[in-house]
Specification:
Structural class: mainly alpha
Mean pLDDT: 85
Low-confidence stretches: none
Organism: Gorilla gorilla gorilla
Keywords: Cytoplasm, Metal-binding, Nucleus, Repressor, Translation regulation, Zinc, Zinc-finger
Strand content: 5-15%
Number of helices: 3
Pfam family, one: zf-met
Protein name: Zinc finger protein 706
Function: Transcription repressor involved in the exit of embryonic stem cells (ESCs) from self-renewal. Acts by repressing expression of KLF4.
């Protein structure tokens, strides 16, 4: 059984390598981008990442609709 110890070491090395590969693949940019979109337009349900962009969107796309109260103090 001279190969026994080498086999165990090889299996451990392979398991570590597989875990590294899985970790590298685990980051999903699409899901991360979706999670970053936290502001939702009340009129058209479009999602935006920050209040500045949200206010610009609201002023350009929905000029006749009154501004939501959460956007009143935001500087665009």
């Amino acid at each position: 059984m001279a190969r026994g110890q080498q086999k165990i070491q090889s299996q451990q090395k392979n398991a570590k390598k597989q875990a590294g590969q899985k970790k590298k693949q685990g980051h999903d940019q699409k899901a991360a981008a979706k999670a970053a979109l936290i502001y939702t337009c009340t009129v058209c349900r479009t999602r935006m990442p920050d209040p500045k962009t949200f206010k610009q969107h609201f002023e350009s796309k929905h000029p006749k609709t009154p501004l939501p109260p959460e956007l009143a103090d935001v500087q665009a």
